[in-house]
């Protein structure tokens, strides 16, 4: 029991340091990350930081993985029942920087992604995250078009759905950059409106239909 509890406390300590690191990154970027800066942000000693992470690179990798996991947990918490176009829209909105927390999260992720160019392990995490997102976008496109998912969870897309999933991912990435440059209130108003416009024009509209927007 003592080992289990000790292990839990150690993991809590690592998460506390990771959370502090993300706050430093949000303010100062990756260049601002140091044992001293993270320790001060976490309210612990430099020795405590080094106890959990032997190197700066290890600390950054863990924080990037932790940030990615937080996003996954938030997306998984979105209810997936009722009107399909409503809950799929809610999932997509969760990926846009529409409030203080998500704007901070977006800035942190961009900093990590830029740093991934110098770290093969971060580059691999970026690649795996993009693959998961592409699978999510594929499922959303199929669901909104009345497609099907097999008993094993495999998506059965209609022709063109794969390309449209890539376009949807590109739209979310680009729209996030635009919204991040807006004031918070403007982003909160514009984000849902622009997403709805894109979904109506490019995802929901069936071939031969005329847009009503």
Q: Which keywords apply here?
A:
Tetracycline Repressor, domain 2, disordered N terminus, 213 residues, disordered C terminus, 2 strands, 2 domains, elongated, Arc Repressor Mutant, subunit A, mainly alpha, two-stranded antiparallel ribbon, 2% strand
How would you describe this protein?
It is built from 9 helices and 2 strands; from the N terminus they run αααααααββαα. The protein has 213 residues and is mainly alpha-helical. The protein has 2 domains: 54 residues, Arc Repressor Mutant, subunit A, CATH 1.10.10; 143 residues, Tetracycline Repressor, domain 2, CATH 1.10.357. It has a two-stranded antiparallel sheet. The longest helix is centred in the first third of the chain and has 27 residues. The N terminus and C terminus are likely disordered. This is DNA-binding transcriptional regulator, AcrR family. It comes from Prauserella marina. GO terms for molecular function: DNA-binding transcription factor activity; transcription cis-regulatory region binding.
């Amino acid at each position: 029991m003592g080992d289990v509890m000790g292990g839990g406390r150690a993991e809590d300590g690592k998460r506390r340091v990771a959370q502090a690191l993300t706050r430093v990154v949000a303010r100062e970027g990756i260049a601002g990350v140091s044992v001293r800066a993270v320790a001060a942000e976490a309210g612990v000693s430099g020795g405590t930081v080094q106890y959990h992470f032997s190197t700066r690179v290890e600390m950054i990798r863990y924080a990037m993985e932790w940030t990615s996991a937080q996003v996954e947990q938030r997306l998984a918490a979105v209810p997936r029942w009722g009107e399909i176009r409503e809950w799929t829209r809610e999932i997509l909105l969760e990926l846009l920087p529409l409030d203080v927390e998500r704007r901070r999260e977006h800035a942190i992720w961009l900093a990590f992604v830029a740093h991934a160019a110098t770290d093969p392990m971060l580059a691999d995490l970026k690649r795996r995250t993009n693959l998961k997102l592409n699978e999510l976008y594929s499922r959303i496109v199929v669901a909104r078009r009345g497609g099907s998912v097999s008993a094993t969870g495999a998506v059965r897309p209609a022709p063109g759905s794969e390309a449209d999933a890539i376009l949807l991912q590109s739209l979310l990435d680009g729209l996030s950059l635009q919204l991040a440059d807006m004031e918070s209130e403007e982003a909160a108003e514009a984000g849902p409106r622009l997403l709805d416009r894109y979904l109506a024009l490019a995802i929901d509209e069936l071939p031969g239909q005329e847009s009503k927007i």
